[in-house]
Design a protein that fits this description.
The chain is α/β, with parallel strands linked by helices. The protein has a 6-stranded mixed beta sheet, with helices on both faces. Helix 4 crosses helix 5, helix 4 runs parallel beside helix 6 and helix 5 packs across helix 6. The longest helix has 18 residues. It is globular.
Length: 262
């Protein structure tokens, strides 16, 4: 089994594909009533790069993901996917962009009434009608094999562990061959061994697929393992952005406190 250091050294270097990043968040503001959640943040993610967004509860991390995937709209600022600002896009156009995004929910969000196989097949049945039934079935088996769940195709979500549910959720997130992967607390609620397995799986998928990824997490160990850059949020602002070593060397009081408590 690889050590933490071994895993960290497997991280792919960001691949520069030109002047336009895959994801570009610029001067983004979002409030709910009088509560300001995001206070003009800017972040960029290139192909093959993973950015971890850290912070205490209620600092806007999950809100950021919802804005990027178009489940909510910003008060001001822009979110560009491959240079296309998604704010105000027509539903059909936004739907096309969403097909390029894979999303892993915090609780995996599997359909309780569907088997593992049927959960992963769900996006293919709705968005890949060009594939035959047998082609979709082959694709599902391939995806589940990628995440080590090909021996559990006909089990129900209630029959597998939380870590296994996260694996199935990842397989479903990859079903439409996304260019972007958004992960909301991928190791939340897992024991240390399962958390490590999920980290290793995410690294493996990144090496093979070179997606632009954003992971929101409270888990500092996971963040420094799977992400090349980290952004720490506090009260709607990006306090610091850089490598884990940059955070360790920071003289900012909040950064020091966050690292000590994590």
């Amino acid at each position: 089994m690889a050590t933490t250091y071994d895993i960290a050294t497997q991280q792919a270097e960001p691949e520069q594909v030109g002047p336009v990043p895959v994801i570009a968040v610029e001067n983004l503001y979002k409030s709910f009533a009088s509560h300001k959640v995001l206070n003009g943040i800017s972040l960029r993610v290139n192909q093959g790069e993973t950015l971890a967004v850290l912070g205490r509860s209620g600092t806007g991390k999950s809100v950021l993901l919802k804005l990027i995937i178009g489940l909510d709209t910003p008060d001001s600022g822009s979110i560009c996917i491959h240079g296309q600002d998604i704010a105000g896009l027509a539903l059909d156009r936004m739907g096309e962009i969403r097909k390029k995004m894979g999303f892993l929910f915090q609780q995996a969000a599997l359909y309780d009434s569907l088997t593992v196989r049927e959960n992963v097949a769900f996006p293919l049945e709705h968005h890949r009608r060009d594939l035959s039934k047998s082609e979709r079935a082959d694709r599902v088996r391939q995806l589940l094999a990628e995440v080590g769940m090909d021996g559990d195709l006909d089990k129900m979500p209630s029959d597998i562990s939380g870590g296994m549910q996260k694996r199935v959720g990842l397989a479903r997130a990859l079903a439409l061959e996304p260019e972007i992967l958004l992960l909301d607390e991928p190791t939340a609620g897992l024991d240390p061994i399962s958390s490590r397995e999920i980290d290793e799986l995410i690294l493996k998928l990144q090496r093979e697929r070179r997606m632009a990824s954003i992971v929101v997490t409270h888990d500092l160990h996971s963040a420094k393992t799977i992400a090349g850059r980290l952004a720490l949020l506090n009260e709607g602002d990006v306090v610091i952005e850089g490598t884990f070593e940059d955070l360790q060397q920071s003289d900012i009081g909040f950064v020091k406190e966050f690292l000590q408590q994590s």
